[in-house]
Write a structure and sequence with these properties.
binds zinc ion, alpha+beta, 12 helices, 10% strand
């Protein structure tokens, strides 16, 4: 058994006190977060981490070294850190290590786990995508039974992979004592598949709202407001969260891809700097900006030809320069 789990107060709780590879004993996470974070964990990153360990195992003397208390302590620390931040990656890593300790050649175990990581992650991502589609289709129907979502998902799975994933495979549960001392109904997690199924099923049962980030494209649970468009994960190597830079990046992309936006932005910048340099008043600038964005929207909607819009922006410039010259008495 990897762990026993339960859901309480909107959190998923993992208990793995018996684990001889990680010393942490258990963790509590917001229901849905571990699974959704797993889905956007790059497989290259996973491969890299695992091949580092393969190299360590393959250095001369590792055969005896891997059973030393120091080595076990180091891997234990790595697993403990992973368990707190990336619960699913931790499970894969744990399976890799127990395979190697069980005698499987490291390289072989690494290959198997890398392939497994990819296929499970891609499968669960497709399940979440399906769920969102089914939810979208049922939108507005307040009487739509949640159970129907499982039927829809599994009908699809039966057709695609030939088996039911959720309906016919209940997890074994038992009663256990958890901290603070109380009795809880716990579920046995014997494989990563079990964990995927458990968390996904509970997310549906608890109606966890899921959205797709408009910047990175991965799933997230909007915490502060339901209409949030961007997730709170760090985007690439920018050191910034999607929620901090998503809107700006999307605007820039829109500008780069659309000549109407491009010409609008170029002229906006020019007029703005003119206003700052006091070559036009702030009121004039605001008037211009309002008219320019109104015409921009007309142009985007196909109500005004692009050339006409470009000519208007150009004319505005000439008119301003002309007016300025007259004012200067030229
Ligand atoms: Zn994102």
């Amino acid at each position: 058994m990897i762990a026993s789990v339960c859901v309480k107060d909107g959190n998923i709780r993992f208990y793995n006190e018996q684990d001889d590879l990680s010393s942490i004993g258990g963790i509590v996470c917001e229901l849905g977060k571990p699974l959704l974070n797993f889905l956007c964990y790059e497989s290259e990153r996973f491969d890299e981490a695992i091949s580092d360990i393969v190299l360590a195992f393959e250095t001369p003397g590792a055969e005896t070294g891997m059973h030393s208390p120091e080595f076990k302590a180091a891997t234990g620390e790595m697993l403990t850190n992973l368990q707190t931040s990336e619960t699913y990656v931790y499970c894969f890593m744990r399976e890799f290590l127990s395979a190697v300790y069980g005698g499987q050649p490291p390289r072989e175990a690494a290959r198997r786990l890398s392939a497994d990581f990819r296929s499970k992650r891609d499968f669960m991502a497709s399940q979440v995508e399906l769920l969102l589609n089914f939810r979208e289709a049922a939108k507005g129907d307040d009487n739509f039974p949640v159970m129907e979502l499982f039927y829809l998902l599994d009908e699809y799975n039966k057709e695609q992979i030939g088996e039911y994933v959720y309906l016919e495979k209940p997890l074994h549960s038992f009663y256990g004592c958890v901290k603070p001392p109380e009795i809880a109904e716990l579920y046995e997690i014997n494989s990563i598949d079990d964990l995927c199924r458990f968390e996904f099923v509970k997310m549906i049962e608890h109606n966890i709202f899921i959205k797709k980030c408009k910047n990175c494209g991965w799933f997230f649970i909007p915490n502060r407001r339901q209409d949030a468009e961007y997730c709170d994960r760090q985007f690439g190597d920018t050191n910034r969260k999607c929620s901090e830079i998503g809107a700006m990046l999307r605007y820039e992309k829109k500008v780069a891809e659309n000549p109407v936006w491009e010409i609008y932005k170029r002229n906006y910048r020019r007029q703005n700097s003119r206003a700052r340099a006091k070559k036009m008043t702030q009121a004039e600038f605001l008037r211009w900006s309002e008219e320019a964005s109104q015409k921009r929207d007309e142009c985007l909607a196909g109500e005004m030809p692009f050339d006409e819009y470009a000519a208007w922006l150009e004319q505005g410039r000439i008119r301003k320069v002309h007016a300025k010259k007259q004012q200067d008495g030229e």
